[in-house]
Structure formats: C-alpha cells, structure tokens
Specification:
It contains 18 helices and ten strands. By secondary structure, it is of the alpha/beta class. The protein folds into two domains: about 180 residues, no CATH class; about 200 residues, Transposase Inhibitor Protein From Tn5, Chain A, domain 1, CATH 3.90.350. Strands 1, 2, 3, 4, 5, 6, 7, 8, 9 and 10 form a ten-stranded mixed sheet that branches.
Length: about 500
C-alpha cells in the first residue's frame, strides 16, 4: 500500500468518529459492558433490585431516535465549526438535510424532523455520555500519531525526531454564573472581589508538528496547572517529550514525567536556576549535569518518591528584538542525542501554543461557553477540542501537497471549507463523491488552495498585551439586586 493511501486511510479513521457506524458501534458495546459490571467490592446481586430504567446506560437511550449518538456528536462539533452556535441553527441544518447521510438504513433525518423546537437536541446533548467525547479524543490521538509518522505506543525508545513532542500550556474559558456552575467552577477572585464569570481552567498538550491537541484536561480555576499536569502525564505515552514554560519548571512536574518514562524540557525562573547552580554561575551556551532534589515546600503527585531527578541545566543568552533574553532550561534528555542547540530550537517552538490557543478560543468561539451545567461545560470543551483537531487534520494532509507545509494553510479558511464540505457530504450533494476516501481527497484539494500570503518580512514577536475596545457602558461591580434597589429609590425620590 502506498504512503499516500495509508495517510488517506488514517484521515478516514479520523472522520470515522463522525461518519462511520463502525467506531460508534464498538464504543457502544464497550460502554454497555462497562456499565453492566458491578462496582468493586459488590456482589452480583447488587443490581437485581434496580429498575430497568436504572440499569439502562446513557448511551442506550439513543436507539430509535433522530438524535442518535453519532448525530448528536456530529452536531456538537458542527456547533463549534459554525459561526452560529445556537441550538436553533442545529435544528435548521437538520431540517435542511445536513445530516441525511447519518440516518439508519438510508432513511433521511430531514423527513423525520418536522418540528422546529430545539428541545429534542437539547435533551440529546444532556444524554450524551461524557466518556464518548473523552474516548473520541484518545482515539484521535492514536490515529493522529500514525498520520504524522509517529508510533502511538513505542515499545523501544525512538530517535530524537521520531518522539512525540507536546507543548504543555494552559488557559481559561469563561461561563455565565449559575448556582451549579459556581460550585464546580467558582469565579476567580482578586483584591477587587469575585469575577462576574465562572472560570474553567484548561490544560492541553499541543503536537509540535501539527498543532493538534493530543491531550487535554479541565478543572476549576482554583486548581493549579502543575497539579493538572500530574494528571495529564499519567495516561500519556512512553517517551513523550513535554515542553513547558516557567510555570512547569518545578520539581514535581519533572518527577511525574520521569515516573512514567517521559522526558521534559522546561524553562526555569532565575531564582530556581540559581539554587540549582549552587552558587556556580554558568556562561552563555554552557550546560551542567545536576541532581534536582525536592525542597521542603515541593508538593508531588501521589506515588512520586521524593528523590533526586537527574538532568541538565542549560543557560543561553539570546539577543532578540533589541533586548537580551536570559534562558534557563532544565531537561532530562541526554546530551549525546539532544545537543544544546537542538533543545534551544525546540523550546523556541513553545510559542506556537499561544497561536494555537488563539485559534481554539477565537476561531472556534470557545472563549465563552454558553452552558448552564458543569456536565455540559465539559462536553462543550471536549467537543470543541475534537472540532479543532478535525481542522488540524485536514490542514496537515492538505499542507503535504505544498512546499511550505501546514504553515502555509489558513486555519480560518480551512475551518470554513471543512464546514461547507461537511454540510454537502451530509446532504449527499456537491461533488458527487460515493466513498469517504474520494470525498476526503476532494476536500484536501480545496483546502490546499487557501494559502496564507507570503510575508516580505518575518512576523515580529507577539506582545503579550491585549488592546480592549472602549465599551459604551462601564464595567459592573457588585450585586445587581442591590443596584436595582438603589435605582428604584433614586427614581422615586
């Protein structure tokens, strides 16, 4: 089988999460088996007294419905790709035939969906198991690594260029304040008081080669990114290289990676680097093998032994944009296969995470999640990650047709073309493609045509500042109930 055909099959596997009954059927079977097993320490008779409704798994409730598991997953991702993320837009698309190919036994869903009400889809979103989205992301990661030429689970230690490198970085997503959300995702607080928004902290591992999200986790904003990194590393593949900024340059994160046979390349603060140097200064371009012992204040994940971690301390002084940058790096990678120049180059790629987050939060419209429950907040997050990864998948394969690769493809245009082609495929219109492989090939050809303009000068370094637009009304602080009472008193007087 040729390399191009293998890659096309891998792309098909990515889309199989949406377009095929095969993967969904396997997942439902596994889900039912997991739900039928009794809890640990309980006997077989624990479920005899339960009702049939209690024994029914969430996934089983999708049979003989318009919004099956596959259709619901399809439209959760559709909402993230579409500019109009409302439930009404989903119902309108379904009635227009946007998911007719997903009907069972060739039955068109548009003929079955006669109502314009959004309650059916809303209930389907509520019933959709969160585990389906999480397993879909895990399956995507496995397929994706094969697509980019990496081994998902390496049995032997691969070479430097064959290892999976993930950029570790975090951000926050805002949500409207509701009682349920406030319990799971409390608002952030500062000296001015609590925020008006519930905040979700997210931590992702971006693929260095493609920008796809290979691992992700969410939690309350009060939970530290370091503690979330411990959890993210546990199911990670062996020999993964994590690249992180100063926020992850602590002993516990490094020790957790070593525990699971992974490596790190993290930046250190000047203070922490000075302690590890033990009073012996380093010159630019110098490195030193050290033993990193945990301090009394270092908190580690459960199961981590409080021992020393062996690694290399690197110092580089760089001149960029008229200023000097002092770069202190720590890595567990050996010097034979990973020279200093290569590690400095790899760490320079960490800035890509900021651009990827811009695509996730701005292009995919995930900066503010329109949800009212914690369960739906988690589902919207993982659905958004899957939608983002689908765009990255077609960008990666389409970029293989260009000399500049994926960097020449516009993310916004790729998202638009993917949405249009998904609509056409769902309706059975457009290109007349009879098979998924043919349709994917035509999709990649069209995306490859939307390239970014060539820059005469290199793009300047991004400044970590935001220019806020002037608002017509000032920011509101305090209780709205009290404000309304004061307003009524003022009007009556």
């Amino acid at each position: 089988m040729s390399q191009s055909l293998v890659s096309l099959v891998s792309v098909r596997e990515v889309f199989a999460l949406l377009l095929s009954n095969h993967w969904m059927g396997r997942w439902q079977k596994k889900w039912r088996l997991s739900q039928a097993l009794p809890a640990s320490g309980q006997g077989r008779n624990t479920r005899r007294g339960q009702s049939k409704k209690a024994q029914k798994s969430p996934g089983s409730g999708f049979y003989q419905r318009i919004f099956s598991l596959r259709v619901t997953l399809w439209y959760l991702i559709f909402q993230r790709l579409n500019f109009d993320t409302t439930l009404a837009a989903v119902v309108s698309n379904l009635r227009a035939g946007g998911a007719d190919r997903l009907g069972r036994r060739g039955r068109k869903l548009s003929k079955r969906m006669r109502s314009t009400q959004t309650s059916a889809y809303n209930q389907a979103r509520q019933r959709l198991p969160l585990e389906l989205l999480q397993d879909a992301l895990a399956h995507f990661t496995e397929v994706w690594l094969r697509l980019v030429g990496l081994e998902p689970v390496a049995q032997h230690k691969p070479g430097p260029l064959q290892r999976t490198r993930q950029i570790l970085d975090g951000s926050t997503l805002a949500m409207l304040s509701t009682p349920e959300l406030a319990k799971a995702y409390p608002p952030a607080r500062n000296k001015s008081g609590a925020s008006d928004w519930c905040m979700m902290r997210i931590l992702t591992g971006f693929c260095v080669r493609s920008g796809a999200v290979l691992s992700a986790i969410e939690g309350a904003v009060q939970r530290s990114e370091q503690a979330m990194a411990w959890v993210l590393m546990e199911p990670g593949a062996r020999f993964t290289i994590w690249i992180g900024d100063r926020n992850f340059g602590i002993w516990s994160v490094v020790a957790q990676a070593v525990r699971f046979e992974q490596d790190v390349l993290v930046r250190l603060t000047k203070t922490r680097a000075a302690k590890l140097c033990a009073g012996r200064a380093l010159t630019s371009g110098e490195e030193r093998c050290i033993q990193w012992f945990p301090s009394r204040g270092d908190q580690g994940a459960p199961g981590i032994e409080r021992g020393a971690v062996s690694g290399r301390l690197i110092y580089v002084r760089l001149h960029k944009n008229g200023a000097w940058i002092h770069l202190w790096l720590f890595t567990t990678l050996d010097a034979k296969d990973y020279p200093l120049s290569l590690l400095v180059k790899w760490y320079g790629q960490r800035w890509q995470a900021e651009l990827h987050f811009r695509s996730v939060k701005t292009q995919m419209k995930m900066a503010e999640l329109d949800v009212s429950t914690p369960q739906m907040a988690r589902k919207e997050f993982y659905a958004g990650v899957l939608a983002y990864n689908l765009v990255r998948a077609v960008m990666w394969k389409a970029g293989a047709r260009l000399e500049a690769g994926i960097k020449a493809i516009s993310f916004s245009q790729a998202r638009r073309v993917l949405l249009e082609q998904l609509n056409q495929w769902g309706r059975g219109l457009g290109t007349g493609a009879k098979t998924l492989e043919v349709w994917i090939g035509l999709l990649l050809e069209e995306i490859a045509q939307h390239t970014l303009p060539k820059r005469r000068q290199p793009r300047p370094t991004e400044i970590r500042k935001v220019r806020h637009r002037r608002q017509k009304f000032p920011a509101f602080r305090g209780s709205r109930t009290a404000a309304r009472a004061r307003d009524l008193i003022a009007k009556s007087s």
